[in-house]
Amino acid sequence: MRSYLVQELRAKDMKTITSHLREHYKTPLEGLFWLPLPRNLWAETQKEHAQECGPYYMALELGQDWLKLELLVRSQQKLRCRCIVYADSRQREAMIDSVDELIRNRDIAV
Question: Topology of domain 3-104, per CATH?
Answer without folding.
Answer: TATA-Binding Protein (3.30.310)
